[in-house]
Amino acid sequence: MSNAVAHADHGHAHHPALQHHFDTLAQQKEAAVIGMWLFLLTEILFFGGLFVAYMIYRIWYFEAFAEASRRLSLFWGGLNTAVLIGSSLTMALGVRAAQTNNRKWTVNWLILTMLLGCVFLGVKVIEYQDKFANYEVPGQNYNWLYHEQHSAGGEHAEGAAPAAAEGHRQLRMTPEQLQNTTQIYFSLYFTMTGLHALHMIIGVGLMLVITWMAWKGKFDAEWYTPVEMSGLYWHFVDIVWIFLFPLLYLVERHQ
Amino acid sequence: MLDTLKIPQRHYLNAGHSLKSWLLTKDHKRIAIMYLLSISVMFFLGGLFAVGVRLELATPQGDFVSADTYNKFFTMHGVIMVFFFLIPSIPAVLGNFLIPPMIGAKDLAFPRINLLSLYIYWLGGLFTLAAMVMGGVDTGWTFYTPYSASASNTHIIPTALGIFIAGFSSILTGLNCVVTIHRMRAPGMTWFRLPLFVWAHYATSLVQVLGTPVIAITIVMLFVERAFGFGIFDAARGGDPVLFQHLFWFYSHPAVYIMILPALGVQSELISAFSRKRIFGYSFVAFSSLAIAVFGFIVWAHHMFVAGISTYAAMVFSFLSFSVAIPSAVKMFNWSATLYKGAVSFDTPMLYAYGFMGLFAIGGLTGLFLATLGVDVHMHDTYFVVAHFHYIMVGGAIMGYLGGLHYWWPKITGRMYSEFFSRVSAITVFVGFNVTFFPQLVVGYLGMPRRYHAYPDEMQVLNVMSSAGATVLALGYVLPVIYFLWSLNYGPVAGPNPWGASGLEWQMQSPPLPENFTEVPEVTHEPYEYEHIVAKETHLV
Question: Do B175 and A184 touch (CB under 8 A)?
Fold first, then answer.
């Protein structure tokens, strides 16, 4: 709280975005930045509970996690990782454009970010659809063996021992144990990626509002805090995925 | 002198009279008033369920209600009191009203988020009340799996969603408070000139911000298990029900400090103001609040000593639980030292403060019994535990809340309540509380388990005492409602500083202007400089 700064800024303090209870735009922006980082901290703790559960069960049931992880598509997962990292780049460029008073490109980059977000969600729909089709959603209809019995053309599915269908890997868990413990993996998979997707949907909604505001010319080099805050949120959601991808898709792919 | 006092022409209460001017307000003071009304409704609703519990326990046989109904009574009592009364009580009412003026600000950093938090609280309350109307919940406020995940067929999902939603209200209140204290302080208001009430709220807010998301994710995991048949806590599929307990208490133990820390802050203000003396050991009291918040996060498993956790983990958690007693005791000793040779008075807020010290001491010391591993095996899930946490939650948090409400009521409304009836209520609450809960300590030590609707005949005397005390306690809680409402129209005009207290909030008019101060105050003094105030007063006389 330096008085000198407060007085120096008073000359051009009547910016339309300045709220009545702040002295300066700088103070208003600092408050927003601290608030946003605190909010992201709550998000870390929110996802943190799931990561704790993941850690415990991955140690207990490593084999089940490795086997179930192989049921996810590396192609779709890898593609989505690339899409999200790309969207973080377009988001950062959007913030940069807002910072340099470039209204046209602020809007363009934000729209591109939204589109990439929608691509991510579309891919997630394809992946979820595959899990539903293969009875890999935990609950009453969950069937660990369905996938093996109906894949690879199914010519040797009849009468084949389930362990043989796992290829050359020797598993210590029985199919019954896998039927149970892989459900825990998929419970975590759906909860974690589901909540992540929910955050993406909220992010796209947020971006719609910000794009509209940018289009209306509400931001300038002096005040573009909402763009920057949405950027922080978007990057956070991106980083959550950077953790989810290796934890869920790459458990033991080298074998 | 009293005759010359008048309610000012313009203040936050008459800044608009329409319903819209209240529901769409961004004024932290009006939002605090709406919180006050909401949590009061919840308090008396939660109290009704307590009446049901005490009526059932007046006789050893389970004859008033069925066992299932009794389960719902204590569950709804706990859910409403914890999540919809105690957690928002002081932070959302007194904190909301007082933190901006105490640091010399016009409002909280995010006024719209402040209003949003109130609406979120209402939405969460609606879900939980809807669940109650549909038939209630019977799991206990702790929602332990596997019972909550599959066996119970009561309305767990809407209740849990209500708690999930209300949690965001608590997060937003805490977040707003932290940012406000960091960025909205008036010139000269350094960190070590902050009133201790503000320090306590800073610590509380950190707990709200860091702890509440964990209960949110725990509820999500419970929700997907109950609604979709996922298996994160399902032992039949290799899941671990004890993991639920860990996650639940990772929030719910720190939540105890969300409830008690603000009351400790109120206490520091009261003790200093009514002994006309600078608080003893300011920085120790300030940092003990932070220490309690930090320790609060690393003691959660003391709720689980008999849940099958490792002996070594239990030993560590037992040791850490003992260490929470240190910062708590620092506060108690500093308050006592402040009282020592002070010009102590017996105004109503101070009566609550005296009561608080006695009850908080008993509540804290019985906590040490329970932190002791061997003793806890005997005491776990008995009425001793129930009495212990009621000494902290009711004897501590509610006494602090009521003390604060009586202290700042003239600031909030501009008028004084009846001094006689308020003293009667303070004494009634204190007596009623002890008659209710002291017998529970004894009956729990004798082995009466909690959450049962029937008990052996020889425990009846103590239970009847407890039920009778609860009646007195209820009377003590109804009285303030009457004289507070009376004071709104008929109370004598209080003036800006009826207690001659220090602190920026007493420099505002009562009731304050919508913008709090006409000019941003410049702070040049330490807090609690009562020696100057007393010198000035004696000089005037």
Answer: no
E strands in B48-203: none
* Residue A115: C-alpha distances to residues A75, A121, A205, A207, A217 (Å): 20, 10, 12, 10, 21
DSSP conformational letter for B494 = -
CATH numbers and ranges of domains, chain B: 25-540 (1.20.210.10)
Please tell me the distance from the alpha carbon of residue A106 to that of residue A88, in angstroms, as a whole number.
14
CB contact set of B409 (below 8 Å; sequence gap of 6+): B415, B416, B417, B484, B487
Q: Which long-range contacts (CB under 8 A, 24 or more apart) does B23-28 make?
A: B24/B115, B25/B115, B26/B107, B26/B111, B26/B112, B26/B114, B26/B115, B27/B107, B27/B111, B27/B514, B28/B96, B28/B97, B28/B99, B28/B100, B28/B107, B28/B108, B28/B111, B28/B114
CA gap B168, B119 in Å, rounded: 10
**For residue B421, what are the CA distances in angstroms to A224, B346, B387, B416, B427?**
55, 14, 28, 12, 10
pTM here is 0.94
What are the chain B neighbours of A181 within 8 Å (beta carbons)?
Answer: 237-238
Q: Please say if the pLDDT value at position B432 is more than 50.
A: yes
Tell me the residues of chain B between 180 and 209 that have a Cβ less than 8 Å away from chain A.
182-187, 189, 209
The whole-angstrom distance between A185's CA and the closest CA on chain B is: 8
Residue of A nearest to B229 (CA): A139
Give the SS3 label for residue B334. helix
**Predicted confidence (pLDDT) per residue in B488-513, tens digit:** 999 999 999 999 999 999 999 999 99
Q: Which residues pair with B382 in a beta bridge?
A: B449
Token readout for B147 is 């019972």
Cβ separation of B107 and A184 shorter than 8 Å? Answer: no
B218-272 tens-digit pLDDT: 999 999 999 999 999 999 999 999 999 999 999 999 999 999 999 999 999 999 9
Closest CA–CA distance from residue B175 to any residue of chain A (Å): 6
Locate tokens 């729990």: which residue? B444
Cβ within 8 Å, pair A191-B218? no
pLDDT for position A166: 52
Q: How far is CA A114 from the centre of its chain?
A: 14
Task: Report CB contact under 8 Å: B210, A45.
Answer: yes
B231 touches chain A (CB under 8 A): yes
B295 neighbors B253 (Cβ within 8 angstroms): no
Largest CA-CA distance found in chain A, in angstroms, rounded: 84
Q: Which fold has domain A24-249?
A: Four Helix Bundle (Hemerythrin (Met), subunit A) (1.20.120)
ipTM value greater than 0.85: yes
Is B230 an interface residue toward A (CB < 8 Å)? yes
Query: Can you give the residue ranges of every domain in chain A?
Result: 24-249
Contact: B239, A57; criterion CB under 8 Å: yes
Residue B224 with chain A: CB contacts under 8 Å: 187, 190-191
Contact B162, B496 (CB under 8 A): no
- The residue assigned the tokens 């415990």 is A56
Q: Is the dihedral of CA B312, B316, B319, B321 positive or negative?
A: negative
CA separation (Å) from A65 to A59, A186, A250? Answer: 9, 9, 10
Say whether B493 sits in a helix, a strand or coil: strand
